[in-house]
Design brief:
With about 150 residues, this protein is α+β, with helices and mostly antiparallel strands. Helices cover about 45% and strands about 20% of the residues. It has a four-stranded antiparallel β-sheet. It is rod-shaped.
């Protein structure tokens, strides 16, 4: 240990190497925790955005179904003579027919959940997330004839 001289007082000693290493380890652990938090927030943001987009697409289709009137609604929703239903869509059809940006592997299916008056209608949106897990969102409503 150097002796205090004319330019160095006894209070100017500084940090030792073990103290600096310990401080560096604590800082690295804290920053890695913050980095993990930031990465999780990014993934949650994407998941939330996809769910909002899917719900918006389902609402869009539901409003179109409501706008078609009550007469023959069940036949328009369900398959007729082997032809696909009017609102069962894949990603390409969502883009071309409705000019909506589809999610990865998105499909929209519609179904009648209750016959008669009122008619129960279900619109289900399926898509794949970043990890290729299947996700879905479903809206249900009753449509009646006044």
């Amino acid at each position: 240990m150097p002796q205090p001289g004319p330019l160095m007082s006894s209070s100017d000693r500084g940090f030792t190497l073990p103290e600096l290493l310990l401080a560096a380890v604590i800082l690295a652990v804290a920053l890695s925790g913050l980095l993990m938090l930031f990465i999780n927030c990014i993934f949650l943001n994407e998941s939330s955005r996809n769910l909002t987009t899917a719900a918006t697409h389902a609402e869009y289709i539901m409003e179109e179904i409501r706008g078609n009137g009550f007469a023959g609604l069940e036949d328009k929703i369900t398959a007729n003579n082997g032809t696909p239903a009017g609102w069962d869509l894949n990603s390409a059809e969502i883009q071309s027919q409705y000019n909506l940006a589809p999610l990865s592997g998105e499909t929209i299916t519609t179904a009648v959940t209750q016959s008669g008056n009122p008619v129960g209608v279900s619109v289900k949106v399926n898509w794949s997330d970043r990890t290729h897990r299947e996700r879905s969102a479903e809206l249900r409503t009753l449509i009646t004839d006044y």
